Amino acid sequence: MTMTNTLSFSYMVNMRSIFKVAIILLSIMMLLFDTTHSVVLESGENHIKSATLFSEKFEVGPGKIAVKTLLDIDFPRGHIGVKSFDVEVVDEVGNSVPLYETYLHHWFGVKYIENITMSPYIKQSHDLLNGIEFERNDGACQGFLLPHYWGLGGESRGTHSNLPDPFAVELGNAANIKHGFKEKWLFSIMIIDTRGTHDRKGCTECRCKLMNLPKDFYNVMMGINGQLLSKNYKGGLFCCQDNVQCKLKNDFRGPTRKLSLRYKIRWVDWDENQVPLKFYILDSTDRVRSNGSTPIHDCQAEYTIPRNHDNDFPHVKKADIPMTKGGYLIYGTAHMHTGVVNVTLYGQDGRVLCTSSPKYGTGKEAGNEKGYLKCQFVIPNPVPSRSKMEKF
Ligand SMILES: *[C@@H]1O[C@H](CO)[C@@H](O)[C@H](O)[C@H]1NC(C)=O
Ligand SMILES: *[C@@H]1O[C@H](CO)[C@@H](O)[C@H](O)[C@H]1NC(C)=O
Ligand SMILES: *[C@@H]1O[C@H](CO)[C@@H](O)[C@H](O)[C@H]1NC(C)=O
Q: In the chain, where are the structural domains located?
């Protein structure tokens, strides 16, 4: 294996002392089977089908954090090429929920294969360790970290994931699925109900001191490296556990509610006109090392942004990530949280391959909540022709 390319990417934030999850999601060159629900054939020559689907419901209540794995979600079947995958949180009657009530910290769409004879057991037990094999993206993180394909957070509602023709993510190719197994998808989600919380923003940042954690939390909780969590761990995924409660304002009372993810997938039946893509999820906290010949990845998935006192200069987090293969960049987007200025992916020679710039909301309505990320623009926009593809 030779390492010929390095991608760097920087994540720039202008907040003081907050933690931030920084992940860039970019799919590069290279990805079969019937269909579910109401499938709409879009007008036009390109034979794109689309379906709007709903996940199973999950319950939230004021201050409550929901961290769920929703197994075996509805997904178009057959040998297909996915063109887009867009997600938002909706209430029981299908209305969009504003982020200041329910913050969508992240949703990840994860591909796995399931031993068909064990399906009834898995359905009943939700056992993720037996009979299931995760199929990671082609990106660089180790182990179980950041295994997903599509995935974003609060900015998801306004950000479109359309891939330009002739590119698509190839799925359901029976020839590539291990005999006796079936390809499936799950959602891994974190949702924070911030209604009535003492510090709304702090809750969305998973600040530990705002959570009602068990007394012995720091004596038992293991961090990402399998060691006890440091007492200096101020916030992050480990403090945002399923069913943990973020501190509420005195006496706040509010009803629980049932929410679900509404997701829209657009796809084409696979044929020779499609060019398959590969997904690479890269992490700006990856502390890449090398043992001489092989890169060793050490993605952290989150980090604490140092306090920069009265300085308003943005803090920059940057990682140099060796790529074992070259390729063309077709689409890229970054997973962002409030405070982000921009996220940029650079080629080995330092040139900018793409930049994601966030847009912040200005109003009250879902999709435009003041102070929350609304969407992001990826520049360059999806590249229209092969001749203009960016090689890295
Ligand atoms: C599926 O699971 C069954 C029951 O554990 C096992 O006997 C079988 O070998 C598995 N099939 C494959 C293809 O691994
Ligand atoms: C580096 O790691 C690879 C993969 O684990 C291993 O095959 C190789 O022998 C290691 N090389 C050295 C110099 O330790
Ligand atoms: C990202 O934002 C910083 C600060 O505003 C700006 O200086 C920089 O040019 C931006 N990067 C890109 C690639 O647009």
A: 5-391
- Cis amide leading into 380 (omega within 30): yes
Query: Are 205 and 18 within 8 A, CB to CB?
Result: yes
CA distance 351 to 302: 26
The answer, yes or no, to whether any atom of ligand 2 lies below 6 A from the CB of 292, is yes
DSSP structure string for 19-30:
EE--EEEEEEE-
Report which ligand 2 atom has the smallest distance to the Cα of 292. Answer: 13
Task: Compute CA distances 342 → 16, 25, 139, 197, 305, whole Å.
Answer: 16, 14, 21, 29, 15
3-state secondary structure of 31: coil
Mean pLDDT confidence for 256-270: 96
**Using CA atoms, how far apart are residues 187 and 87, in angstroms rounded to an integer?**
11
Q: What is the pLDDT of residues 298-334, one digit of tens each?
A: 998 988 888 877 777 888 999 999 988 777 888 888 9
**Structure tokens of 21?**
């999850």
| CA quadruple 256, 258, 264, 270: dihedral sign | positive
d(CA 378, CA 356): 4
**Amino acid identity for residue 204 in this structure:** T
Query: For the whole prediction, is pTM greater than 0.70?
Result: yes
Q: Which ligand is nearest to the CA of 290?
A: 2
Of 384, 378, 365, 278, residue with least CA distance to 336: 378
Count other Cβ atoms within 10 Å, centred on residue 53: 18
